[in-house]
User: Fold these one by one.
Assistant:
Number 1:
Amino acid sequence: MWYSKLNNKALWKEFNEISKYPRESGNEEGIRNYLLSWAEKHSFEAKKDQTGNVVIYAPATKGCEKLPPVALQGHMDMVCVKKPSSKHDFLADPITITTDGETIRAKGTSLGADNGIAIAMILTILSDPKAAHGPVEAIFTVEEETGLAGVYGLDTELVKARRLINLDSEEEGLIYIGCAGGLDLEASMKYKTETATGTPLKVTVSGLLGGHSGGEIHKERGNAIKILARYLNRLPSVSIASIEGGTRHNVIPSIATAVITTDNRDIAISTAQALQVELSNEYKVSDPGVKITVEDTEMPLVTMRKKKGQKLIDLLFTSPHGVKSMSTTISGVVETSDNLAKVRLENGKAIVSYSIRSNVDSRKMLLMYEIQTIAENIGFKTKATGSYPAWEPNPASKLTKEVSRAYSKIMGKKPVVTAIHAGLECGIINDRIEGMDSVSIGPELRDVHSVNENLNVASAERICEFVKELLPLLK
């Protein structure tokens, strides 16, 4: 077994079990049934709400009966992305895990440690006969990655604890006490087609790292859709037969493709070559593998009418992407950003999707209005959905002080108490359950929402042990 030489075999055995179950957002039935059967096996009460969330109740261990209840929380679903060459079926196949002893990864796909490692840590702690803790409510939500539907639908009557430790963070040593709010924006435009003429070419932008549009938006990684638009905007004559880029609203697009026709094949090829030189220089640190290729392809039957196609190019080229502003209250934290997340042609419509985030709700709305203005002036209609509030930091909270003090004692160094630009479920739980006090912690997890997702073994083992030792200290 891949984890045979790792230290905390109980943790990795549990993570391996979780990884056997397909759990793309909206397809959590398998992992949900596993959690319910796990609870029954360990004689713990468990409840499922109408949304599909699961809460497992672990009673206090001997000597800890007087401690107040604590909630441990993570989400069941994962972002499912794979390499173009992968034949992995996310509806049926288990994740294939590999390790070099320092990190674990998946073979050809995202790993799902976001947020499978939270589930594994919680189950490992609750099943450890040596663990001491007061009453624990383990909350496992669904559809976190596609709009936080699970936590919004959580039956709050199932939650009695008023202290919550969310385990969905990705950097060891940080205690998050605030997060960004966000919303999704869609711009759409109807178009008609015309008979394809000219030289048909397939354009592909690839080799980018992608990643989480909240946690890694500040790393200046390339957006494949923006690069594709940059190329198309330079062509003197172009018609679009098809265009596709991006996978999820919260994933920085790493691949984008288009089938086009043009009046001058030589210019199309030389333009791509010139742009490749620019990209290799611009992204030599953040995305050294960036690649744009142009190749001959079969002649499509139709293309978008040229004026409408140019409007789509104009929107993609002028749309903002990346960091809009940095926080003036918490040093080094992104305040506002957007991810130009997806583009596609569907049923006679060109559809462009954005994910907007901000730690300040008014700035979130301002950026939305700016993008709406750009899109609507070009000729698109816009619609905003899935808005969720920012979680405002409270450094004076009792739980923050207790967790910080325990971290210093157990780990031998002070944590950094800060906020995160990504959205966290505990912010919504705080908003929905009066009196809830939350923090978010987690192990070193890199390149989430991409095929390069990797989890640091030693860090995950340390955080698991820290949470176990923390629980009996929470008065």
Note: The mean pLDDT is 95.
Number 2:
Amino acid sequence: MMASMRNALLLIVCGAALAQQPDLKKTTFENQPGMVLANGKLEMIVFEQGASFANLVLSDDAEKLSPLWNPARLAREAGRPSQFGASFGHFICVDGFGPTSKEEAAAGLTGHGEAHIQKFEVKASRRDGKTSTLVLAAKLPIVEELFTRTIRMVDGENVIYVNSELENLLGFDRPINWAEHATIGSPFLEPGVTVVDMSGKRAMVRPYDPGERGLPHHMASGKEFTWPDAPLESGGTADVRRAQSPPNSGGHTTTLMDASRKYVYVTALHPAKKLILGYVFRPDEYAWTQSWENYPPTGKLARGLEFSTQPFDVSRREAVTTGSMFGVPTYRWLPAKSKIESHFLMFYSRVPEGMVQVDDVRLENGKLTVEDHKSGKRFVLDASLPL
């Protein structure tokens, strides 16, 4: 009798444990292995390589339009091979954001850090009530760091919560470079239509060599400005929230996030399709948002919404030597044998008819409120988990 009761209890415990470890739905997207995360509102594909967020759609969207940059598809449509591997959509630049020194390259270190080229291991996949959690981790072998990313989704919410941890495996303090290389692409990114807004004002155009090859630059090199009115090479200013129409330019700006806010934001809104992608994060963890613009005349556009620890994607040596910009550090410290964390949420949702821009995003009391003061439109999303 006692033995049968123990066996019954064991079966109940094992069943509960199995219920907390749901099978991950595996998939292949653009010839890359990945996992599908879904909560009834959103479906997101996460690559095994780099833990990149490769595709994001609304579950009930017949068009299945993802706002995320897909260079494989854009290259295919243009009749060219893709050169980006699994590093597209939203990928991680840790530890490093930009080119390497010649010595680092000789040691095997790649540009934009090691995380985006590592295969991540699934450390946990569980469900607690309405919340699904996926924990991914990878060791960064050259810099001797461990990167762990926790992704959470709550049933029925248009929000994805992302917590990340970087552990120093060595016994000395070190400066690190960290960027969330969030990138939008066509057709969600439409010239003259899709508008990017963020909670920052002090900004700068990245310095460039006027003789460099590539798309024409229309912004004045190395000039400070107040977002979003960037100085032009031809004189005057232009609102750079929208891509030029017709497109034929490249550029790169950085904006210092408003440190007086607990949470800051960057959004990309397509008013005609009534769709919005947005990110909310802490300015003490990501002080800068970079807008990398690649607007070729083919219309196969890409634009970065890259929130990061540094104003531009430069080598570690340059970031540390620069030290600060606008009085704010251009790198972050990772203490010896210690861990640091970063947090953000991303949301993808429909918006009310007539919404044309974003003037504020607030995360308060389990709600995410997005406002357009120009049109008077606003909407509220459930965001039940803390950031």
Note: The CA atoms of residues 359 and 372 lie 5 Å apart.
Number 3:
Amino acid sequence: MPKSSRNIPVNSMTDNFSQGIAIDKISIKKSDFKTEQQFEEAAQSHRDEGHTFHIVEKGSVLIEIDFQKYKINAPAVVYMHPNQVHRILDFTNMTVCSLAIKNENLNSDYLKFLEEIAPAKPLALKKNVSTNIFETVSLCLNFSKQNDNKLYHLLLKDSCNTLVALIISVFLSQEKSLNKLSRVELITKSFQQLLEKNYCTIKRPAEYAKLLNISTHYLNESIKNTTGSSVSQHIQVRIILEAKRLLYHTDKSVKEIAFELGYDDYPYFSRLFTKTTGMSALTFRNKRHD
């Protein structure tokens, strides 16, 4: 059962990490956890302070990301955006390399790509791709140990950005390139990026249409054609996801959560949650005790 908290736990970078970059390679065995309590503490739901990349070299892991479960078998890569809440549910003995990097250390172009691909599902790696990634991981780990090098941070930063670029390229290879997207697909992509940044403050489709310099009708038509759902439904789903995160992982009241998500009308928010999920906010929260 999750611990009581006013906020979703965040794994922060400590002073042991180099100025906003943390990289490590570990082998984990179930026998490392002597008690069930130790495993529960290690598997607690959390967000990460930076963008995180987990490259699974050996073994397998069952993880939950924003209430979706994924079984991951090596070799594979998992990208977590700082907004996402995740936890380990189970694993076999495994070897994993984890990189956490803050925005200020990321190449601006790479950061833009990460915002575009998030949320990204875990991805299995083909042999030729995994070889390049594992070799780059080794390079990053090597530089991470050269604290006495006068260019230590630059070497670590540049090598880790190369690793991030390789990982991004793998995710992008699964998608259409921008120059192959139709106009309605480009509109949908732009809308989704705006929604991620503004869901707490902008709730009306017309406001998103204005930001995109198109009519509300054309925005709705584009989103419906590419996703099957209306603009209003997308807005509601994004708000409800954040509400679920706060309900499940914190002890804030439903009224507090409604206000945090931009709703002064608490009863309206409660009705919206029930309509969207098929259960009341309190019923959803009580599920965590089941």
Note: The mean pLDDT is 90.
Number 4:
Amino acid sequence: MTRSQTPLRALVLCPGRGSYQRDSLGSLAGIESPALDVLDGWRLARGQPTVRELDAAERFSARLHIAGEQASLLTAGISLADLDQLDPDRIEVVAVCGNSMGWYTALGYAGALSLPDMACLVDTMGGYQAPDRLGVVGGQLVYPLTDETWHVDPALREAVDAAVATIPDLYWSIRLGGQAVLGGTEEALRAARERLPPRVMGDREFPLRLPLHSAFHTPLMRPTADRAAEDLAELGWQAPRLPLVDGFGRVWRPRWADPAGLRDYTLGPQVTETFDFTTMLATALGDYGPDVVILPGPGSNLGGAIAQVMIARRWKGLRDRDDFLARQASDRPVLISLRRPEQRGLACRDAARSTP
């Protein structure tokens, strides 16, 4: 794109905590980011390792890079650092949303919370999972619902619905495009793994347990939500400067959004009720008609779920996986993942840098 062209209208979709993986180490090398400076200052003032320090670790470890008390702000920090690199001559952000914990990042990026308050929210919610606090509550597992064309198989979805309906303490946690994320107690998750038909995709076997993840977005998290409402009562909520779309598919608009409503949703239903990523993204695509969806880091593993929602809606004429991949290989992809160097160059000022 030349400087004289109209900027692409973009929907920003912030990823959740599980997106930081082994190959994400070093994501921040060479990046300058005012937002990250704020988050690192927050951590330093509390004697905690900074986002930059976590990302620059010599080796990947579960304690540093997966456990919620470290991984949560690490994920948010990399997302915000990537978004700081967007070139306003090429990208006009028209709306913001986020998957699961990515909702907290979206609140900070859209201005519903100041960055220090967003850091407090992220660190507090992630910190509850530390062994000396509330600990990990239950867990989550992932189960794919699509065939090889990325269309949802009704029989697989029915199998998941039947499992949720009949296994005590098993819940839909996230409706993630063509994937089911289920949350529940240890006993419920064991029963689900025995009940659901085994599937192999690539080198992974499903149902797949997510390590060190609590059963977020289920009723099991009610004590966590109650604790958060008390601990985070002083956060300074305000109407966002950019439209926000939440996990119910509800839009929070600049100037008109009720700050108390944003607080009550974020510290209540967002924690204890199903997060409907599918409806969230479908609403954002329909209401704001972006040219492109931008996925900041870390990683790019949310791309498949985004594509599956686009395909289900026939967005921009996409009918199946092959259509999506062909469009991604063109000079006008529908999804720009900022952790893919060839796509980062379409949106960022630092396009020349090599990203993990």
Note: Confidence is low (pLDDT under 50) at residues 352-356.
